[in-house]
Amino acid sequence: MQNRIRAWCSLFLSAIFFITVLMEYIPTPQDIIEFTFLANFGISILLLLTALKLFRNRKAFPNIAYHISLVMIMLVFIICLIGLSGIYQIHFEGEFFFLHVVNPVLFLCYNVIFVEKISHWKSLLFIPVWVIFYLLLDVIYGAIRGKFIYNLHETGTLNLIKLAGAVILSYSFVLLTGLLSLLLHSFLRTIYLRTVRNYK
Predict the structure, then answer these.
(1) If we measure between CA atoms, which residue out of 1, 16, 192, 26 comes closest to residue 112?
(2) Which contacts of 17-25 are long-range, i.e. CB under 8 A and separated by 24 or more positions?
(3) Given CB 3.0 to 4.6 Å as the disulfide criterion, which of 34, 67, 96, 128 pairs with 171?
(4) Residue 57: how many CA atoms within 13 Å on its side-chain side?
(5) Which is it for the CA torsion 15, 20, 23, 28, positive or negative?
(6) Which ranges constitute the DSSP H helices of the chain?
(7) Contact between residue 62 and residue 28 where contact means Cβ atoms under 8 Å apart
């Protein structure tokens, strides 16, 4: 019964992620390389595949897959919050609000209800690797197109020292984000399980 409920929830959330990300990026398909698109679209695929596995009475993916996805989408959420400080221009209209605020909160709730707490915290060290891969993708993109994805730096002035500094800072920031998101998940998961037990 629990797997059936999770399957339907996975399918429903997958549809929300998929529809909102397409509505935002269909008018600007050149922007699908953005981290926001990749995080939201990747989760929509993960949830869809999860639903299909559960409907076939098979196990969901290992918990770490959902924890990594949670960190990635919470990173989008945190960067969006930082934008409110005025460091860069940001808007909260339409699908953008879903991709940066609603979807992260929904996926956090999904993880709290269905995903076990992380047991091996050493795996946290590998979570930022995905962002490092994205940075390398950005470097390749910049070399080909002459500009980086978010135009935060001039391609002509980038050198190995700046690149190494960007990698270290990004790794540290994502590691901190991962720690905070997993601690939040662990805290909320504990409250949820206690509430369910008390209700029973």
Answers:
(1) 192
(2) 17/41, 17/43, 17/44, 17/47, 17/103, 17/107, 18/44, 18/48, 20/95, 20/98, 20/99, 20/102, 20/103, 21/95, 21/99, 23/94, 23/95, 24/94, 24/95, 24/96, 24/98, 24/99
(3) 128
(4) 1
(5) negative
(6) 2-25, 35-55, 63-83, 94-97, 103-114, 129-145, 160-199
(7) no
Radius of gyration of the chain (CA): 18
Q: What would the DSSP string read from start to end of 132-181? A: HHHHHHHHHHHHHHSS-TT--S-GGG--HHHHHHHHHHHHHHHHHHHHHH
Q: How far apart are CA 161 and CA 149, in angstroms?
A: 20
Q: Provide the token pair at 55.
A: 């409907």
- What does the alpha-carbon distance between residue 136 and residue 12 come to, in Å, rounded to a whole number? 33
Task: Give the integer Cα–Cα distance in Å for 183 and 181.
Answer: 5
How many residues would you count in the chain? Answer: 200
Write down the pLDDT at residue 49: 97
Tell me the pTM: 0.86
- Tokens at 46, concatenated: 């993960």
pLDDT tens digits, one per residue of 40-93: 999 999 999 999 999 998 999 999 899 999 999 998 888 777 766 666 566 666
CA distances from 130 to 89, 127, 134, 172, 178 (A): 26, 6, 6, 13, 12
DSSP for residue 42: H
